[in-house]
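Quick entry, no commentary yet.
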Amino acid sequence: MSKPGEFVGSLDCGTTSVRFIIFDKHADIIAEHQLEFPQYYPHPGWHDHDATEIQVHAEQCIEAAVKDMVAAGWAADSIKVIGITNQRETAVAWSRKTGKPLCKAIVWTDSRTKNVVAHFEAKLVETGIEVTPGEWKKGKDGVEALRNITGLPLSTYFSAIKLRWMIDHYPEVAAAHEADDLAFGTVESWVLFNLLGGAATGIHLSDLTNASRTLLLNTTTLKWEPSLLAFFGFRPSILPKLVSTSEVYGKIAAGALKGVPVAGLVGDQQGALVGNKCLKQGEAKCTYGTGAFLLFCTGGEIVKSSHGLLSTIAYQAGPNAKPVYALEGSIAVAGSAIKWLRDSMAIISSAADVNDLAAKEPTSGGLYFVTAFSGAARAYTNPSHIARATLEANAYQTRAIIESMLLDSGAPLKHLKVDGGMTNGDLAMQVLADVGGFTVIRPEMRESTALGSALLAGERD
């Protein structure tokens, strides 16, 4: 006889794979399933995803994890609600009528849009933004106005730039835009659209954390900004309805979880912030992967950075709740530096070996590791010094970002919670604490991103 359960599911749509994880009320994992999906690099600097493949893999992961849960003796209806977390900024364009993608999705890492950025940088200087009717800001004032509205700079990174490129280069997208048939969204918006019935129901939503990465959201009013739609040349009809990170958006239309509500949406880095319980001012998390993403919770007030950090929305715990904000900084080279020691320097055979090698020396022997590999000479021959200097370089970069966050926010750091592959090394985390001069907490639950969306879904308004 099957056991009844009270579980929450999390659909984690990452950059290279999709996972569905089923949590119990203690945040223990009951079942999970993960599938990688193809990456497309048609030209240098281009990085595409097939949005349909992401959706198909998501559905397959749900079915497989539920099957495993049932095989373990749990009732099929044990999952009461699910949340979704996702790679941010990746832009998806689809037809409202057919529910099908109009082109490949452009991934957050893609850099083909440099000319688009240059065009809008020039437009910002020469024409500017109409911040209120009849009031234009241009030049340096225009640049500042854009940051004040969105918390972001013009960059290839953010979704609006990618969408503009799609409209300019794909006739199908341009035609749909003109015909009011174009639906634009980031990955959570696309996946949710399909889970809730696709074109038949037409539910087109996006949460504030993902919307805050588009260059189109006014992070003060929590609404799409008309002046930026005009600036980029977008029709308002393309945009999803804005929702909080924790409320019921609808029920799954088909499959093993038919009828189960979806009630949590959150971008992956903000999901990790929530999953690590960094919910109050002064609490921070850093996810160490190929690069590293550091988010510092600033509470209920937007903090504008004077040190090049991004101001973003951390979460909104229900449609009637006040949003919580964060400062974000990133490190381009973190885990990839260790990979370089393995693949190019050949001083370790696996990434895990870096901690043991670095532990052979108490210091780096005066060696500093600069994360700029081009043209670097192999002047040092002590592998242990090199390994330790690599760990220290990561720690110094983290400390520099945190120092900027403290200056911008005026709030003390309570602690830094960490997750990601690099955090498995005890020495790496001890070096981080020693160099940083702050408390580093490594939670037992490492699936913080997925847990974050599950917590938001479970606490739905």
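second:
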Amino acid sequence: MRKCALLNSDLARVIALSAHTDEITIADAGLPVPECCERIDLALTHGVPAFIDTLKIVATELQIESVVIAEEMLVYNCAVHTQLLQLLDEIGEAQSHPIRLNTVSHQAFKTQTANSRAVVRTGECTPYANIILQAGVVFK
């Protein structure tokens, strides 16, 4: 059994295969997943697992250079947006490299998910709780 925080084998595999600038999307329960992307469905029920909890675990394994969120999150999901900004600061400190935050329209976000190695579906049931993670490198 793995000793680290991430136990899901499909997600661990996708992270292990990720190289610099590769993208992984963490999505709420409602985001459409493009046919071209691997779908890793973690959703068990409404809210389980939560978006923020999933991101916390993924960040223990993935060096994150930048992220993309929908600008609608700022308006329609202030609580998650606030938690996300705090978490991104914490992750940036832990990995000794700040994370660049990019915002786009929700429509542009959905289009960009097609570039992801995988879309990780959580049980999150709040609006616009989605993020595209761009992999960084662990060296300078």
